[in-house]
């Protein structure tokens, strides 16, 4: 456990700011503040220090005059005060990108518990990013072979023979992968136990990418995670960094959409999980998204540990599933501040109340027996005031007026304090609702982009049939679809080298196309374009092979009387009754489209 260092004067506050802004720091720094009016923070700084171990430094700073000296030395927006906490990663990127060092607020005990866990997660994640986990430990570690008992709050709890279970921290295992996608309850794991931090390190047991990705084959539809996205290209992660580097595949605009004007930033989001087809296997993996159909089965993502859960899972289609009810039915905000009735004390110029005589020399004369009234013929003592008495009375009046003014100021300050507390509650309510709406908007954006991405491969091809040109002759209509696919998928600079050759349409082709259900004519035209231009044999997903007289591999190839050879290509893969296209290759090399059918239909 690292020690908590207290910042309680201007000198230590300035030194902390210099440490954060300097270049000598090699570990993350967690700073927790104490709100004004309290002696302890809402955030559990001791728990943060226990989790930090040797991975980070922890500071505690009360809110005071020296807090401003610390803030003045920090870049705008990177300060911390008023009971909040923040972890500063190694380097200086956080000074310009505030998302690198998020501020965690705490206004009460419940906020403190949440902020504590968030700060611990931030700290461990930043320590892993700084490469501190690769350093050689200075203490002895014990190898354990045990079972995961449960997974909760970003931790997997395992039994190591102690009174309390040890933890596997997701931030210290695989970057940007939740613990639920690494381990599961009941999974047998091996790792190294650190008694000081009560954590188990399982990184050496993680599967290398070469072993994990052997289940993928060319033509499979698999899950990938968006790591970066630009206008014309994106980076998709097939497998994260474990004991081997991550497997990252770059896809270009043409691999995602047929429209060269599409901006990929409108079709995918960083962190989104999307399906893609494997077009080339490792070590040089290649992926394509434009020909993935909604009904195609998706191969499960590999596990990071032997027997563990898949490291990726499909995201729900609609974000409303995970959206709390508070978004659609907002709770009433806290009530407005209740006005405090201010009772004005009597003004020093007003007459005193009955029974409350003004001070007089008689009251100051201790030799007199009591406050009995003097005879009417005797002049009152008030009329025989000396100069010193008058000065004393003026001083008393002045003090009375000052006290009354201070009381009014106290009441006003109490009113402002109550109003400020209510305003803070209202602001917290509004902040909570704003965060919920932001989360909903982000989920909606991901869902919309997913639907848009799926639509790009079909919407433009569906357009001619619905609102584009219409043909009385079905053959002309199909030729138009093939021409459209060629013009859409072939860049103008490549059209000269890959022209759309003339092709024939057999007498049974259009009839079979009209009768075959489960596939759109635009999809058939797309594959026909690939066959006519010679692109299909280069695509493993098309599964180009001879059409034989039977289903056996030794059956003779179908050959027509004019010497044309029968071929067969896949319109769909990995689906029940997957559709196929049959065609002839004439001795001249010309293509004749013969028929579309299901997987088990070998007629031509």
Structure description:
This is S1 motif domain-containing protein. The chain has 604 residues and is α+β, with helices and mostly antiparallel strands. It contains 13 helices and 20 strands. The strands form 4 sheets. It has a 5-stranded mixed β-sheet with strand order 1-3-2-4-5, sandwiched between helices. Strands 8-7-6-9-10 form a 5-stranded antiparallel β-sheet, with no helix packed on it. A 5-stranded antiparallel β-sheet has the order 13-12-11-14-15. Strand 2, helix 2 and strand 3 form a beta-alpha-beta unit. Helix 2 (45-52) packs parallel to helix 4 (109-129). The radius of gyration is 39 Å and the shape is elongated. The two termini are 76 Å apart.
Tags for this model:
single chain, 604 residues, alpha+beta, 5-stranded mixed beta sheet, 5-stranded antiparallel beta sheet, S1 motif domain-containing protein
Topology of helices and strands:
Layout (H helix, E strand, L loop, with lengths): L3 E3 L3 H12 L7 E6 L10 H8 L4 E6 L2 H8 L12 E4 L14 E2 L4 H21 L12 E11 L2 E4 L7 E4 L18 E7 L4 E3 L7 H4 L8 E9 L3 E7 L7 E6 H4 L16 E8 L5 E3 L36 H4 L32 H4 L22 H70 L2 H8 L7 H16 L14 E2 L3 H7 L5 H12 L12 E2 L18 E6 L8 E7 L5 E8 L6
Parallel strand pairs: 1-3, 2-3, 16-20
Antiparallel strand pairs: 2-4, 4-5, 6-7, 6-9, 7-8, 9-10, 11-12, 11-14, 12-13, 14-15, 17-18, 18-19, 19-20
Helix pairs in contact: 1-3, 2-4, 11-13
Question: Largest beta sheet, briefly?
Answer: 5 strands, mixed
Tell me the overall shape: elongated
Please mark out the parts with pLDDT under 50 across 5 or more consecutive residues, or reply none.
318-383, 459-465
Kindly state the mean pLDDT as a whole number? 82
State the distance separating the first and last CA atoms: 76 Å
What's the number of extended β-strand segments? 20
Question: Which percent bin holds the helix content?
Answer: 25-40%
Number of helices: 13
Radius of gyration: 39 Å
Which class do the helix and strand fractions yield?
alpha+beta
Question: What order do the strands of the largest sheet run in, or round the barrel if closed?
Answer: 1-3-2-4-5
Q: What is the beta-strand fraction?
A: 15-25%
